[in-house]
Specification:
heterodimer, A: 84 residues, alpha+beta, five-stranded antiparallel beta sheet, globular, B: 367 residues, Aspartate Aminotransferase, domain 2, 2 domains, four-stranded antiparallel beta sheet
Chain lengths: 84, 367
């Protein structure tokens, strides 16, 4: 279940991040960020499995992809922001 | 037609370019503006080209910004660095894309002069002119009038030592010579997509190692509530709808270029140039040639002004250019004002038979 969300400020960063994760063997999806986790309007997010979250953050960091935020989607559909 | 006006734009493209433009026109919507399939296709098309360019020039994808042409890139670069009254050092070979922009910005221009084909002398002249307090240094990689290659790596070193931001105009070299912004320590490197990179017109790249000021303001498909332009590249420079068909075509030409052997391409162009130089000289034609020259050659025919000569060439089926080539500074440096020169310019797709046709036409004009 893809319930871990990493938001990014541009589609380019999202694409760069997606490629970096895919190269590292992590499966993810690039999508327009749900409104609840993109209060600044129009953002992109990488969604992936919760268990891959920490590794993904490290890979993105090493690839120069700055995340705007990280979120977990709860079963009720709400999101909780994770500390950096 | 024998096409030898590639310094203005390459007319012949790799076949894949045409298909890529058509495909994007038919299937791509607005990148970064929707979650639907056609928008996603456009985003991927744009990103593929951006990544290819980044790889080609040794940068990260976000350091590659799409522009409409090299002029727009130079406007962004210089507009980010120069304020009214600033001292700017530039080569005396620069194009109006640089000089008009600097004058429009109210800069004080310090053009540097040297024998056109002498790299050492150019480097010395820049070293002399780059005094403390210089706001920026601008230099083309290769002249659009004479084909002379300037020592941008050395000039970049001098600029770095003196903490002066360096801007390179790679309009004539990109696609032919290695363009290495990191090695040159160039804050900005601008180029068109439609000349040596063999992409469609209406495309250009600005390679950014620095944080530029936007030239255009507007929607980017990101951080929409914020009324300031985004800080992050490339969005900071890419307000408004991108030229997706053009970018798609540029992606196809970059892929094609990556498959070629750069050294062979350069050798082939050099050989064609040498043939033209040797035969023109034997006909008594005045030519401007030298070492460190790419396939751009200025010349004049005896007893014919350059505009009349270009018209006669066109009548004979040979496309080349006459006049100042939008570079009056270069002609002042070379002493070729006010008439300018005839210019033949090659591309990596120029063939030997075209040079033969041009030389035959020249012989006819000299009769």
């Amino acid at each position: 279940m893809y319930d871990f969300y990493i938001t990014l400020r541009s589609v380019t960063m999202g694409q760069k991040g997606r490629d970096a994760l895919n190269r590292a063997g992590l499966s993810c999806r690039l999508l327009r960020a749900p409104r609840e986790i993109a209060p600044e309007g129009c953002a992109y997010a990488l969604s992936l499995r919760r268990r891959d979250g920490d590794r993904a953050r490290t890979i993105l960091d090493q690839s120069g992809v700055r995340a705007a935020g990280c979120f977990l989607r709860r079963q009720d559909g709400s999101y909780v922001r994770l500390e950096p | 037609m024998i096409y030898l006006d590639n310094a203005a734009t390459s007319l012949r493209k790799p076949p894949q370019v045409y298909g890529a433009v058509q495909e994007a026109l038919a299937r791509c919507a607005n990148p970064g503006r929707g979650g639907h399939a056609a928008a996603a296709r456009a985003e991927e098309t744009v990103y593929r080209t951006r990544s290819l360019a980044a790889d080609y020039f040794g940068l990260e994808p976000e350091q590659v910004c799409f522009t409409a042409n090299a002029t727009e890139g130079l406007n962004i670069a210089l507009g980010s660095l120069v304020r009214p009254g600033d001292r700017v050092v530039l080569s005396g070979l620069e194009h109006n894309a640089v000089t008009r922009t600097l004058i429009g910005l109210g800069a004080e221009l310090f053009p540097v002069s040297a024998p056109i084909f002498d790299k050492e002398k150019w480097a010395e002249a820049f070293a002399e002119a780059l005094k403390p307090g210089t706001a920026a240094c601008v230099c083309l990689h290769a002249s659009n009038v004479f084909g002379a290659v300037l020592p941008v790596e050395r000039i970049g070193e001098i600029c770095a030592e003196r903490m002066i931001p360096f801007v390179v105009d790679a309009s004539q070299s990109a696609g032919l010579l290695p363009v290495l912004p990191k090695q040159w320590r160039a804050a900005y490197t601008a180029m068109p997509g439609h000349k040596g990179l063999l992409g469609p017109q209406g495309t250009g790249l600005l390679l950014c190692l620095d944080q530029p000021l936007p030239l255009r303001f507007g929607g980017t498909g990101s951080s929409s509530l914020d009324q300031q332009m985004p800080q992050d590249l490339p969005d900071r420079l890419e307000a408004g709808t991108l030229n997706v068909p053009g970018i798609s075509g540029l992606g196809a030409s970059l892929r094609w270029l990556r498959q070629q052997d750069g050294t062979s391409m350069l050798r082939k162009e050099r050989k064609l140039l040498e043939t033209a130089v040797r035969r023109l000289r034997s006909m008594g034609v005045r030519i401007w040639d030298g070492p460190n020259q790419i396939g751009v050659l200025s010349f004049r025919l005896p007893k014919l002004d350059v505009e009349t000569a270009a018209a006669l060439y066109a009548k004979a089926g040979v496309a080349l250019r006459a006049g100042l080539h939008c570079a009056p500074f270069a002609h002042r440096t070379a002493g070729t004002l006010p008439e300018g020169t005839l210019r033949m310019s090659l591309s990596v797709l120029t063939e030997q038979k075209e040079i033969e046709g041009f030389l035959t036409a020249t012989k006819g004009l000299l009769k």
